[in-house]
Amino acid sequence: MRVDETPAGGPASTKRAPNHTAAPATNWIDLARVCAMGAVVLVHAFSPLVSTTHAELGSHSWWAAHVFDSALRWCVPVFVMISGGLLLRPREHEDAAAFYRKRWAKIGVPLIVWTVAYLAWERWRDGIAASDAVAAASSGTPSIHLYFLYVIAGLYLLTPFLRTVVAYTSRAGLWWFAGLALGIGAADQLLGLVEGVGGSTAATQFLPFLGYYLLGWLLMTSDPGPRALRYGAVLFTGGVTATAVGAWAAAAVAGEWGTGAEYVYDFLSPTMVVASVGAFLLLRSAGLKLAAIGGPAARRIGRVVSVLSGLSFGVYLVHVMVLNTLRDIGGTPDGAAAFLAACGYGAATAVISIVLVAVVQRIPYLRATV
C-alpha cells in the first residue's frame, strides 16, 4: 500500500510521502573524478615540501607547493560528495541486502587486498613491526591514503538507512543535517589538537565525512544553472585563499609547520569545506558544458575522460606505492629544485599508475582489486 492511501476502516495516513526527486544529471562526473584523481596525486607529491621535509618554511619552493596544495585539497571531499550524490537517491527496488552485495565487490575486496599489500610493502621498505602494522590497520590508516577506503566502507553501511532519511526529510531538514554533521566533524578535528585527545579507528573513520556524503546529494540535485557557477567560483576562491593564508599564518606564529597549520589543511576545516563545495560546483558546471559540446573533437575528449574515469579508483589505490618508489630511486632535492622535482614525480606517478591499472584491469581475478 502506498503511504498516501487510506487504510480500510481507518483514518487517512499522516505519514509523510516520500520525496520522489528525479535522478540528477551525472554526465559530468567522469570529468570530476579525473580532476580529483589528478589532484590527489599532486597533493601527495607536494606534501613533503609543504611539511618542510624538503623545503624551508617561507622559501619560494615552499610557497609554490603550499599554494598548489591549498588549491587541490578539495580532492577527497569531492570524491565523497560524488559517492553521496550517486548513492543516496532513494531506490524502491533495491533493498539493503542487494545494496551490500553490490558494494562489497566494489569496496570490500580492494579494502582487504590493499590493506595487506601496503602493510607488506611498508614492512619490506621500512621494516615496520608486526604490532605497528596491526595498529595501523586497526586505526584505518594502513597507508597515508587508504583511510579513504574505510571512510567509504562506513558510509556504504549507512547508505540504506540514509536513503530513507533522504526520502522522507525535507531539503531544508537535510541541509540542517548536513551542516550539523560537518560542524561536528570540524569540531572533532579541532579538539584533536588538544594533546592526548582524539583518534579514530577503522570503524569510525567515516563519521567526520558524513556531512560531505549528505552534501553531495544536496548539491547534485540543486540547480546547475549560472548561479551555481558563480557561487562555485566565489566559494572556491575564498576557501582556497583562506586555507593558504590561514595555514601560513599558523605556521608562522608557531615557527614551524605544526598542528595548527595541519588543522587548516584538514578536509574538515571550515576553509576547506568552503573550498570543496566550490570545487564541486565548478567541476559540475565544467563537466556539463563539456557534455553539451557537440562535434567529433568533443566526443573524442569525452571518450578519453570516460576511460580515465574508469581507471581513477585504481590509480588512487596504487599511486602512493608508485610515488614513493620513484622518490626512493631518484631522491628528492632540497631548495629551489624541490618544487620542479615534485611536479615531475607527480606527472610520472600519474602516467605509470594509469598504465599499471589499465593492465591489471585486463587480468582476471586481479581486476576486482582496482
UniProtKB/TrEMBL annotation:
Q: Which GO terms describe its molecular function?
A: O-acetyltransferase activity
Give one Pfam family, short name only.
Answer: Acyl_transf_3
Map out region (Disordered) in residue numbers.
Answer: 1-20
Q: Which UniProt keywords apply?
A: Cell membrane, Membrane, Transmembrane, Transmembrane helix
Stored InterPro entries: Acyl_transf_3_dom
GO cellular component terms, semicolon-separated: plasma membrane
Q: Where are the transmembrane segments?
A: 31-51, 71-88, 104-121, 144-162, 174-194, 200-219, 231-251, 263-283, 304-323, 335-360
The coiled-coil regions, if any, are none
For whether the record's keyword set contains Cell membrane, the answer is yes
Q: Which GO terms describe its biological process?
A: enterobacterial common antigen biosynthetic process
Where does the UniProt annotation place the signal sequence?
Answer: none
Q: Please give, as recorded in its UniProt entry, the membrane topology of this protein.
A: Multi-pass membrane protein
Q: Where in the cell is it found?
A: Cell membrane
| Domain Acyltransferase, chain residue ranges per copy | 27-357
Location (main, coarse): membrane
State the similarity comment.
Belongs to the acyltransferase 3 family.
What this protein is called in its record is Membrane protein
